[in-house]
Amino acid sequence: MTVSTSSRLRTAVVLTSAGLAAVGALVAAGPAAVAHTGSTATSSAHRPSEPKQAVATGRGGAVASVDLDASRAGIATLRHGGNAVDAAVATAATLGVTEPFVAGPGGGGFMVVYLAKQHRVLTIDGRETCPAACSPGLFLENGQPLAFEEARHSGLAVGVPGMVGTWAQAVRRYGTHRLSADLQPAIRRAEGGFRIDDTFVQETNESLADLQAFTSSRELFLRHGQPLPVGTLLRNPDLARTYRMIARHGPRYLYDGPLAGAIARTVQHPPVWKGTPLTVRPGIMTRKDLAGYHAEEPAPTHVRYRGNDVYGMPPPSSGGSTTGEALNILSGYDMSGESRALALHHYIESLRYSFADRNRYVADPDYVDVPLHGLLDRAFAATRRCLITDTAATSPVAPGDPYPPYTGCPSTGTASPSTDHEQSTNNIVTADRWGNVVAYTNTIEHFAGTGMTVPGYGFLLNNEMTDFDFAPSDPAVPDVNLPEGGKIPRSSMNPTIVLRNGHPVFAVGSPGGATIITTVLQILINHIDFGMSLEDAIAAPRVGNFNTPASFAEQAFLDTPVAKTLQDEYGQQFSVVTGVTPLDSEIGAATGLELLSHHRFRADAEPVRRGGGSALVVDPGRPGR
């Protein structure tokens, strides 16, 4: 089924102002903002840096994110009466300041929410949409697809940002604060600044050529065209002003106000630095595209696994469907009773077959008839499980037939390899004293997105449209993930909330492009099947497969005896994840939280990857309490 316009564009959306609330200081104010964007200093006025902690246990609520300032913003919001939704928005907005290469108002994401009073799970789809003028030939020139990097640093790659629309809708419908209150910590951090660390410098280097290509990005993020040194105090008064105007006027400031015009101009006429060797193509986004944006609330995916109810994001994310299908396949094995090598063999093979089905069937359901019911049906999973033997399958394996009746042990169709590119994302988990829980994954896609900062507004624009396939990989196989006007590209974001006996027990999510799916699935089986604490499940070495001959793995996994057994006894092949910087050899800096007995919480963040994350609780209490 193909339609000409997305439901996001069918109904004109009215995004009302949240108003400017009189809000007390939620976090300590930094030094006064200086007069121009991108100001740096070595002043000691900023409060001293404190070490991140990867685990925190206590009462009153919890937050885990990749950044200490962002987690603090969420905790401060909880302490001032905000709920888990407010805390997620405050954390995300602050990440737009302190982690601008992976977050900010120029991006989008997916939010999964458990509402304690209603005893239900909902989702908010705040993913970016392709401008109305998009067509399947968006990334073709002379009939040939552009190279990924050529497409990425162009206006063509920019999707209509969904981040602010998500924040506004989440807070308006499910928060206890106004959006204006939830933005205050981010405003103060943008004004006061933050100290650049090693990870920030590494992220700058990841996309240095792209940042150098745009005058606005050079001014904000570089010094003499090079990365800012560790320890620099980076202030962003332009972003503070952007957030302040959104707080005052609501999301309409971005979607139908001055910022809409600035975004459209930047996309159509990129602020190219005359010395760049890069070819920067203009984009096609208009103010009308921005005015038509609307965040949606599709029903979550749901599967039962070992007595747990696992909820995730439906299409256009492939996170919930692929993880759900893999769990259904694995439910036929005694994962906790098998040897670890056999259990991980089954895990890898479940991914091989689930990704074959993901690549063939999952896309924007407003444009493609996604057989979601079949993909999540245990009977269909049985037809995939029966293909798994004690020897690794030869990839790419063919997709199955997720349309009932499911019979026999078929392997039908032609295999479609994954064409996913690296994605630099972040995940936030929050919980409050009322029992509400949020898992929120958001991104601007690649590190620094397009590399293009909106002049005078202090944030980078996404390159999410490169998540579309540029051209069909096989003319004989329908490609469900080609660009169209208003369409959302397939995503791998996978925020997940797990309930048991009707009550939330833990939440988890991760960055990492398609490795988001493998990371979340591996954490789930580590925690549920292997009995690891969530802390250990997050820290464990990663391995995964996208329906490719060799599975990818971190070196720490390949150094284990179980990896050798998988190679020698089960025929698994591995390729080690390597790269120019330490960030390139890491898979999934995940975050999670657990709801413990006696109204206590345990927040868990990554201890090492991407410099480690930050886990905080409202009231840590006395040591040992």
Tell me what the structure shows.
The chain is an alpha+beta fold and 625 residues long. It has a domain at 301-397 and 417-421 and 490-619: Gamma-glutamyltranspeptidase, small (S) subunit (Glutamine Phosphoribosylpyrophosphate, subunit 1, domain 1). It contains 22 helices and 22 strands. The strands form five sheets. Strands 2, 3, 4, 11, 12, 13, 14, 15, 16, 20, 21 and 22 form a twelve-stranded antiparallel beta sheet that branches. The chain has a three-stranded antiparallel beta sheet with strand order 1-10-7. Strands 17-18-19 form a three-stranded mixed beta sheet. A hairpin with a 4-residue loop joins strand 13 and strand 14 (437-443). Helix 7 packs antiparallel against helix 11 and helix 15 (319-330) packs across helix 18 (378-385). It starts with 6 loop residues before the first helix and ends in a 6-residue tail after the last strand.
